[in-house]
Write a structure and sequence with these properties.
The complex is a heterodimer. By secondary structure, chain A is mainly α. Helix content of chain A is 70%, strand content 0%. Chain A has helices at residues 22-38, 42-58, 63-72, 74-86, 91-114, 117-127, 138-168, 178-209, 228-248. In chain A, helix 1 (22-38) runs antiparallel to helix 5 (91-114), helix 1 (22-38) packs across helix 6 and helix 1 runs parallel beside helix 9. Chain A is globular. In chain A, 32% of the residues are buried. By secondary structure, chain B is of the alpha/beta class. Chain B folds into two domains: 3-232, 3-Layer(aba) Sandwich (Rossmann fold); 246-281, no CATH class. Chain B has helices spanning 47-53, 79-83, 93-96, 102-112, 120-130, 147-159, 177-192, 205-211, 235-240, 247-257, 268-280; strands at 3-12, 20-30, 35-39, 61-66, 69-71, 86-89, 165-169, 197-202, 214-219, 222-227. Chain B is globular, with a radius of gyration of 20 Å. The chains are: A mainly alpha, B alpha/beta.
Chain lengths: 251, 281
């Protein structure tokens, strides 16, 4: 059964964003980061903001999951707003910084919610293919990256089942106050971490059973094709980069 | 401890594309000191009955009365007083066992329910013996056990704190034929000698037929019908809700088609005697 908490984990519904090729998703993220890091143009940031919101809508992942992600980082936002206010930054510049933060966080959330761990692995590996010339162990590297990315979502799911089981045997979480919830969570933390690590090892083992060689490269029988919607998304991101390049005067 | 479901509806992932209804307008009464079975396929939502009785889930609509406690949308104060009386064994033991060793697992409930057990070692041994394991398992790691052993340890981990109500979700999964026979004896013993209330959530009609006092058929979250176990002789009813007729009843049914009239029996031994009598006549 799926948990009610989806913090950063794959949300299994069928949407146009889920269908986008994972390699294209990573290339788009890379292209997206170029204007985010370099540009100060508020109009470009507003357009990127609306693109992200539109993609969030298309993904069919409930909006509250995206807002949960922002809510989890609320203290960081408050600290940044205070820092900007203390520096006496103009409203427009402050807005650009907040838009940058929103776009980066929600773009990452979009990738995690709409890409399964297996697709993540495929995408990362394909993106790292140019490094093959240095004889890197790409399989192991992409496996490690995916393990890091999926660790926390997996930990939250494991924590739910541990807390439920612990509650049934006296360590209540669901009917207690904040303090008893913290106590239950902390008491279960050691077991949650151990079980999460065991699960990640099991995923790695299962991947090997499915002909995935972590030491060399993936044996993927089905190659994911690049479709029309992938090209449109890539085109939009290239326009963003082009807009940034003209803004700084390279072209 | 009497348990009553009053018009309960339970859903998960509400207002999302993954919304699922497990129970809808579900009402039933589970009598004290009885063996009650809820029969349904894997999409019937019966596994949530255990969670709602144990108050690890809350109903969306309706109330669950467990003795003097009520599980509704609100918070239950001193919930551990309720849970000391309820022992829930989940279908998948991996969801239930989270401690490192068998000993830690057995003593978890004892520790958090603050039981004053002086002879913990004896209690652990007794719980393991009841489920057909021995003391050599105490220091074994949970991750090293087979699914069959895990299933037995999960049952032992609730028997150790001696709850009044024992809920078994798919008890026959992962265990061998001999274990199933032992489990039947244990359930009857718990009811008759120790006055426990046993709730079985399963689709295994063969298992239920021999021991249950009352059966309930659940389909897609709704209670279809309930009654004594003779209900399981209705092949049309069982077929339409994705359930199998118990082997004993199927035998009696097939015999009646050939004009051999046999009385309904509770188990194989009684059936053999009935056939023997019939042959003599």
């Amino acid at each position: 059964m799926l948990s009610n908490k989806f913090f950063g984990s794959f949300y299994p519904v069928n949407s146009s964003i889920h269908k986008i090729n994972p390699v294209i998703k990573f290339i788009c993220l890379f292209l997206f980061l170029i204007p985010i890091i370099g540009s100060e143009n508020i109009r470009l940031h507003v357009v990127m903001f609306f693109l992200i919101v539109f993609m969030m809508y298309l993904s069919r992942v409930p909006m509250r999951f995206y807002f949960d992600m922002l809510y989890g980082l609320r203290y960081i936002f408050i600290i940044i707003i205070f820092m900007l206010a203390s520096k006496g930054l103009e409203l427009e510049s402050a807005l650009v910084i907040l838009l940058k933060l929103f776009c980066v966080i929600e773009n990452l959330a979009l990738i995690f919610y709409t890409t399964s761990p297996s697709e993540l692995k495929y995408g990362i590996e394909k993106c790292l293919t140019p490094f093959n010339i240095f004889n890197f162990k790409l399989g192991r590297l992409s496996n490690l990256l995916v393990s890091i990315i999926t660790f926390f979502p997996m930990m939250f799911t494991t924590e739910q089942s541990v807390l439920k089981s612990a509650s049934a045997r006296g360590l209540d979480y669901f009917h207690g106050d904040v303090l008893s919830r913290i106590y239950a969570s902390l008491s279960s933390l050691k077991n949650t971490l151990r079980l999460t690590i065991e699960k990640i090892r099991l995923v790695k083992f299962n991947s090997e059973l499915k002909m995935y060689d972590v030491k060399k490269y993936r044996t993927n029988l089905r190659v994911k094709k690049v479709g029309f919607s992938d090209l449109i998304l890539l085109g939009i991101h290239i326009v963003f980069v082009f807009s940034y390049v003209t803004e700084v005067g390279i072209i | 401890m009497e348990i009553k479901f009053d018009n309960v509806t339970y859903k998960e992932n509400i207002n999302t594309p993954l919304e699922m209804t497990f129970l809808k307008n579900f009402s039933t009464l589970i009598k004290d000191n009885s063996i009650t079975a809820f029969l349904g396929d894997s999409e019937s939502g019966i596994s949530k009955i255990g969670d709602l009785i144990n108050a690890t889930s809350r109903p969306l609509i309706g109330k669950v009365y467990i003795g003097k406690f009520v599980n509704d949308k609100g918070v239950i104060k001193k919930v551990n007083r309720l849970r000391t009386n309820i022992g829930l064994v989940t279908m998948d033991p991996s969801l239930m066992l989270f401690n490192k060793t068998v000993s830690d697992e057995l003593l978890f409930g004892v520790k958090y329910f603050k039981y004053k057990i002086n002879k913990k070692m004896i209690r652990q041994s007794e719980a393991l013996t009841l489920v057909g394991l021995n003391d050599s398992y105490l220091n074994k790691k949970i991750s090293e056990l087979s699914l069959r052993e895990k299933k037995k340890v999960s049952l032992a981990s609730i028997l150790i704190f001696n709850p009044n109500v024992i809920i078994l979700d798919e008890p026959t999964y992962f265990i061998s034929y001999n274990d199933i026979e032992e489990l039947k004896k244990l359930i009857v013993l718990l009811k008759e000698k120790y006055n426990k209330t046993i709730i079985i959530l399963t689709k295994d009609t063969d298992f239920v037929y021999e021991i249950a006092d009352r059966v309930n058929i659940v389909y897609h979250g709704s209670l279809i019908t309930s009654g004594v176990k003779d209900l399981l002789s209705d092949s049309v009813l069982l077929d339409s809700y994705n359930l199998k007729m118990p082997s004993i009843l199927r035998f009696i049914n097939e015999a009646s088609k050939k004009d051999i009239k046999l009385k309904l029996t509770n188990n194989i031994e009684e059936l053999v005697r009935e056939v023997e009598d019939n042959v003599k006549q």
